[in-house]
Amino acid sequence: MSIPIADFAFLNDTPAGTHGFVQAREGRLIFDDGTPARFFGVNLSFDAAFPDAGTARRIADDLYHSGCNMVRFHHVDSARGRSLIDYNAGDTQHLGQENFRRLDYLASLLKERGIYLHLDMYTLRRFLPQDGFSPDEAQRLTAPVKSLLYYDEKLLALHVSFAEKYLSHVNAYTQVAYKDEPQVAVVQFLNENAIFWDTGDPRPDSI
Fold this sequence. Notes:
It is a single chain. By secondary structure, the chain is α/β, with parallel strands linked by helices. The chain has helices at residues 53-65, 97-112, 135-140, 153-168, and strands at 22-25, 28-31, 41-45, 70-74, 116-120, 184-188. The strands form two sheets. A four-stranded parallel β-sheet has the order 3-4-5-6, covered by helices on one side. A two-stranded antiparallel ribbon has the order 1-2.
């Protein structure tokens, strides 16, 4: 690959995690060793988070030489296109192993280049009857159903289960679980999480 004339790769300390985990101290982000943490990042949404190997290498290199040091894997639970959830299983409680392999490979390339991760635990997940809902309930639970996750115990349990599976997953290329990976700088439990976010069709008060 050709190196761009304006090359900002020198801004990234490699690999990601060199300075330890990111922490919040007195209103600032700082690494374990005391180094201030500053991030300049992008979203990789939907299928963009699951590229083939060649595309993954090009993405990682382009971001590295652009001085980017954070990537957010966004909408990776969506039923549209590729997903970490295997919707073909009939419910939303099984992970898509091939897509996880693709995301793992991209994450490993980003780590080598000093690029950190922002992981979303819920964005556009759909819930299906096989998750324990009646057909009518599932139909009304059209994504996103973010505000319901604050008070519906069944939805919250499904959400927590997915988060545990995601964060406990061991990257096939780094051999480190995401929960133990200092490359992971941010874990967002619920995307766009205002209690009044759902302003579309009326939602069920309780499931």
